[in-house]
């Protein structure tokens, strides 16, 4: 009996080690492409990720580099990608620090959701703080660009909170965690109204984020995004808490 127990314990140890190595391989292989939350979902479900989704109120952040098409045509491909990868590497650290989930890199644009796949009651606050931290990081990014002979860049950021459909979209053989819906499209439209160095946020996002968000009302604008029947107010976010966006980064 004791011998059998030892054999079972040894077998159990081997199985645990096999699972540990498998999880480590998954993290090493996909860790660069998936956020920690999505990766944990995959590991916890042992790969049994179902197609489908849910409706949930989330905070959304869209970024875009100004005049990137012109830059890509003026720079050689290798230099442009090196510059872009450094820019993304800096922003990704900030997104992770504020518990954002990067859903996509669309060219030089970044699509981020806060509050999914795991719910976060402070998603709006985190999204606003993340956006401010991103713009505050741009001077350092441009210092790096200049040191490497690359041009200065600027980006705009759009923020909104609202209901979206989130889940694994695709087929049983290939899926992507993503979000769709009217509010997702609206966030993209909001970003399109920004200048380089600017953050524009919907009234819903500003109200949900709390009083630590600093808004320059003089820079706020009434707009009518495509697909919206009435004008909406977009707030010019210039800081969070004691952290302010450097004025020099604005166009």
Coarse shape:
globular
Q: Calculate the terminal CA-CA distance, rounded to whole Å.
A: 78 Å
**Oligomerization:** single chain
- Based on CA atoms alone, the radius of gyration comes out at 21 Å
Q: Helix and strand string, N-terminal first?
A: HHEHHEEHEEHEHEEEE
Number of strands: 10
Q: Could you say which structural class the secondary elements and strand pairing correspond to?
A: alpha+beta
Mean pLDDT: 85
Strand content: 25-35%
Helix content percent band: 40-55%
Described by strand count, sense and barrel closure, the largest sheet is:
10 strands, mixed
Catalogue the unreliable spans: none
Q: Figure out the total of helices.
A: 7
Keywords:
single chain, 251 residues, alpha+beta, 10 strands
Kindly describe this structure:
There is one protein chain. With 251 residues, the protein is an alpha+beta fold. 43% of the residues lie in helices and 28% in strands. Strands 1, 2, 3, 4, 5, 6, 7, 8, 9 and 10 form a ten-stranded mixed β-sheet that branches. A hairpin with an 8-residue loop joins strand 8 and strand 9.
Walk me through the topology.
Layout: H1 2-30, H2 36-44, E1 52-65, H3 68-74, H4 77-97, E2 100-106, E3 109-114, H5 123-147, E4 155-170, E5 175-180, H6 182-192, E6 199-202, H7 203-209, E7 213-215, E8 221-223, E9 232-240, E10 243-244
Helix pairs in contact: 4-5, 5-7
Overview in brief:
By secondary structure, the chain is of the alpha+beta class. The chain is 43% helix and 28% strand.
């Amino acid at each position: 009996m004791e011998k059998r127990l030892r054999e079972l314990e040894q077998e159990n140890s081997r199985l645990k080690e096999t699972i540990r190595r498998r999880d480590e391989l998954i993290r090493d292989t996909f860790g660069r492409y998936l956020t920690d939350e999505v990766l944990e979902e995959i590991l916890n479900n042992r790969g049994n990720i179902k197609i489908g989704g849910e409706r949930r109120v989330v905070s959304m952040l869209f970024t875009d580099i100004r005049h990137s098409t012109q830059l890509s045509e003026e720079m050689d491909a290798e230099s442009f990608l090196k510059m872009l990868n450094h820019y993304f590497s800096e922003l990704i650290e900030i997104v992770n620090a504020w518990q954002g989930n990067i859903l996509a890199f669309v060219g030089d644009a970044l699509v981020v959701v806060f509050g999914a796949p795991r719910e976060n009651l402070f998603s709006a606050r985190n999204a606003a703080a993340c956006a401010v931290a991103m713009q505050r990081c741009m001077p350092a990014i441009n210092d790096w660009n200049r040191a490497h002979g690359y041009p200065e860049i600027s980006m705009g950021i759009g923020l909104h909170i609202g209901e979206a459909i989130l889940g694994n979209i695709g087929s049983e053989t290939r899926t992507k965690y993503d979000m769709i819906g009217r509010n997702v499209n609206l966030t993209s439209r909001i970003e399109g109204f920004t200048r380089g160095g600017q953050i524009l946020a919907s009234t819903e996002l500003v109200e949900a984020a709390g009083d630590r968000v600093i808004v320059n009302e003089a820079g706020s604008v009434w707009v009518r995004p495509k697909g919206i029947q009435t004008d909406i107010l977009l707030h010019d976010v210039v800081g969070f808490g004691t952290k302010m966006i450097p004025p020099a980064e604005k166009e």
